[in-house]
């Protein structure tokens, strides 16, 4: 059976997998866009890495009427004043890349149709192993195009953006791209998951990870045999990445006490008792519900770099300077140098005692607080970000909040109330939200006053999990708590546990990179990736 075809093809966003393991059905797959069911008895052997499916933690929920979803989505993105939260803005897009590392819904269904988790075929490994960076490795004939040689990942070069020398083309600051823009050789991004080029912030995050891997390769002991250098480097990268997520990322977005409890005492509601190295499934409660928290964090504009300060990095421009949602790949064949990110403006290097990496005064971007409000800039998503067409302009298909609520109905996702009951049955203390909290929240949050009495009753009885977990965060001061924190922490724990290199299965492992004992944050990762040199980390200066 073919292991992969067409990996990284931008038109389809495929990860190169054609066969999917569906519980109760065996292997399901096909080629040329035609599905073929395989004898259920032809199940893969234990540990077979080929495919997996989405699954549920909780029961099926009830679909809300479209009219309710329309009103709630409008209220969430009505343009009320957005509030900066405590989380630095870079973590918004780190979270987006992590999501792409875990899930990739490839289901060919019409938006709005009912679809079960078993039909949500995924092209991602549900492990935190950076397959969105590595693909199948340099030895795989398809994934080989993602590499410069047998151990280093390929990286791109920006193009000159003006007469100034500092805006010259620079190697190492763009994603790798191929083609010349002609019809015969269209420009495309050469990475395993084209979604990591759907906005400039996540694309630059992938560039940083490429640089990090390459730097780890170069830091290996010279005695490591040539044939082992890639595997050794990948192991170190994945372990440091997981440590950063556990100790730096998760405590910023979730109640730390929940994260500590899960990583100390184990899971209570998801894959409890699973064989650690078995292939996990991906819970829809995570991918369609709780982990969409990042949509609330998106700012309408960023202080991006010295060229685009004071809010000059608007969200529409960050979409525009990408290959999936924008115009890189048409007349513009690579990123212009004036759009190289200044990481000092997105991450707090002062937290790791690097005052030399302080951004200009007033230019440190904070993510919007995690609550039930979504920036109006996300009411008109570029069609390229959701496989849409020009015909979708001006329709609800472009509206992110409506899309999220509709997708919840499509998969009959468990409601927030149902998931609170699941936690309670597992002995996890949780206080369900009250009617008033659901409809009105905290001061400054979304108020659902335009729902009719009947609509309000239906919404309070079956609150969409995405909205429910955001309301929990809003009431908890801007971090996931209760239902949302538990779903996210347990899914991360399982995804780390099952990875080939795992800090969960190696509890004694500690970081060997970074500037302090037992510490490895996203700032440490960036310093390693950019040679611990301020001029390399931010080549455009102040």
List key phrases describing it:
Myeloperoxidase, subunit C; 3-stranded antiparallel β-sheet; disordered N terminus; mainly alpha; 542 residues; two-stranded parallel sheet; 17 helices
Give structural notes:
The protein is mainly alpha-helical. It has one domain: Haem peroxidase domain superfamily, animal type (Myeloperoxidase, subunit C), CATH 1.10.640. The protein has a 3-stranded antiparallel sheet, with no helix packed on it. A two-stranded parallel ribbon has the order 4-10. Strand 1 and strand 2 form a beta hairpin. Helix 2 packs across helix 4 and helix 6 packs parallel to helix 15. It is globular and about 65 Å long.
β-strand percent reads 5-15%
Average pLDDT value?
86
Reported by name, the CATH topology is Myeloperoxidase, subunit C
Indicate the structural class: mainly alpha
Count every beta strand, where a strand is a DSSP E run of 2 or more residues. 13
Query: Oligomerization state of this entry?
Result: single chain
Major sheet details: 3 strands, antiparallel
Task: Provide a count of the helices.
Answer: 17
- The termini sit apart by 54 Å
Q: C-alpha Rg, in Å?
A: 22 Å
What low-confidence regions span 5 or more consecutive residues with pLDDT below 50? 1-52
In helices, the fraction of residues equals 25-40%
Domain module count: 1
Major β-sheet strand ordering = 1-2-3
CATH superfamily: Haem peroxidase domain superfamily, animal type
Task: Tell me the overall shape.
Answer: globular
- The CATH level-2 architecture is identified as Orthogonal Bundle
- CATH class category name: Mainly Alpha
